[in-house]
Amino acid sequence: MSELTSSKTFFGHPRQLSTLFHIELWERFSFYGMQGILAIYLYHSVGEGGLGFSKAVAGGIVGAYGGSVYLSPILGGWLADRVLGSERTLFWSGVVVMAGHIVLALLPGVAGLVGGLILIGAGSGGVKASAGTMVGSLYESEDTRPLRDAGFSIFYIAINIGALLGPLLTGWLQVNYSFHHGFGAAAVGMAFGLWQYGRGRGRLPKSEVPNPLPAGRRNLVLGLVLAAVVAVVLLVRADVLNVKNFSSALSILVLTISLLYFAFLLANRKVSAGEKRHIAAYIPLFAALCVFWALWYQVYTSVTVYFDKTVLRQVVAPEWLRGWAPLTALGVDPASGRFEIPVGWLASLQAMWVIALSGVMAALWSKMGRFQPKATVKFSLALLGVGASYLCFVPYVHSGVPLPLMLFSLVILAITVSELLISPISMSLITKIAPAHFKTQMVALNYLAFSLGFTLGGKLFHTYYEALGQERFYMMLGTIGLAAGAVMLLCSPFLNRMMNQLD
């Protein structure tokens, strides 16, 4: 009996999924824990333990960093496919992430900021690209293939557990101790993840380098990398590239890289005719992903503004809980029981919905097996769902009545269900269609949809939110989602025929 199908399982899946689950959880714990306090670290005064940048500059740095992180899987994917293999890339990328958090924790000032963010961004790219490929490798046999989407849904839980817990701890440490204690906690979390990964590393499927880089070309590649770094430095020093135009430049760069990647794969002689057909079918799905993530990103822009300025966020604790020490420590008034939900908890609400529902979705796909909807239909439902969610804001904005907190939570729930219909499914799909010689790079290509979608989402908010007004802006978001979902649904039969051998 194969080790992947042995009696020892993880929620009914190959036990190796546990190893990958935990490394992803702790990497996300460290990443989101750091990111949760990064912005305030940048604009808090030096006396408060920060760097003293303006809020505008701080926001620009955080935005640029977030978009750039989703470019780094390209490098991680290339290293896995051409130099190290997926497993070794995953491990050493985790080490680089840990080193970045250590630099942030121990090295003060701008030098620590720049060095730490570069290391974390580069390492995160390697983890993102390689982890997805390794999960996909667990479901290549005939008996495990029907469990693939469910396995990725379970894997997705790890991401959101980390996203939930990381900011809770680092935020508490920042308030009670210092920013650098928070960064240190992120480093410890990543170290613990690497320790756990090391314990199960030997049971993972062997990861060979599918397309080794010829030794004679390594110096050429190194030279090109150094030339690119020098070019970026010169553009920044000449103020050609700055905070104000970085989003536009990033959008153009990501779109260009995406098109070049598709052209490269479709023209490559190492990619078979069947693989090229699957890649061609993925192109409209890639476009759908970009649209979805542009809409989803509004949770952190327009929805955050609405939650901050409009939603009545004050709750009252039951009388029998008033005075309970943990609640008092959180800020609940012991006499009245009143508590105003922090705006920052919006991200935690979304993460908690993901954690609560990921297992349900995984169980659903497992139960349905071969009878579950095709990936294209799941994409369509995701777009329709996120579009309908934003339309819920329209009547309340029109009437001037704040959206009740409970109803607001249900709207976030609907957006989360849409996310679960597309995000883990896209990761699963990309591992199915990936050519044998470019498996990890195809996973990296999937992350380019995140980068382009997030960047476009920010530009969408910046360009149209104030120009159109809240009501028309939410109507626009809803219309885009419903229209894109309808188009995808109409295209589904054709795309399914192009990918008829995948399911």
Written account of the structure:
The protein contains 18 helices and 4 strands. By secondary structure, the protein is mainly alpha-helical. It has a single domain, classed as Up-down Bundle (Growth Hormone, Chain: A). The strands form 2 sheets. Strands 1-2 form a two-stranded antiparallel ribbon. It has a two-stranded antiparallel sheet with strand order 3-4. It is globular. It starts with 8 loop residues before the first strand and ends in a 5-residue tail after the last helix.
CATH class: Mainly Alpha
CATH architecture: Up-down Bundle
Structural class: mainly alpha
The name of the CATH superfamily reads MFS general substrate transporter like domains
Q: Residue-averaged pLDDT, rounded?
A: 80
Low-confidence segments: none
Q: What's the total count of β strands?
A: 4
Summed up, the helix count is 18
Helix content: over 70%
Q: How are helices and strands ordered from N to C? A: EEHHHHHHHHHHHEHEHHHHHH
Strand proportion, as a percent range, falls in under 5%
Q: How many strands, which pairing sense, and closed or not: the largest β-sheet?
A: 2 strands, antiparallel
Number of domains: 1
What is the end-to-end distance?
24 Å
Strand order of the largest sheet: 1-2
Cα gyration radius (Å): 23 Å
CATH fold naming: Growth Hormone, Chain: A
Shape type: globular
Output the keywords.
single chain; 503 residues; mainly alpha; Growth Hormone, Chain: A; globular
Compile the SSE list and pairings:
Elements: E1 9-10, E2 13-14, H1 16-43, H2 55-69, H3 73-84, H4 86-106, H5 109-137, H6 148-176, H7 179-200, H8 218-237, H9 246-267, H10 273-296, H11 302-309, E3 314-316, H12 325-330, E4 338-340, H13 345-368, H14 375-391, H15 393-399, H16 405-433, H17 439-468, H18 470-498
Antiparallel strand pairs: 1-2, 3-4
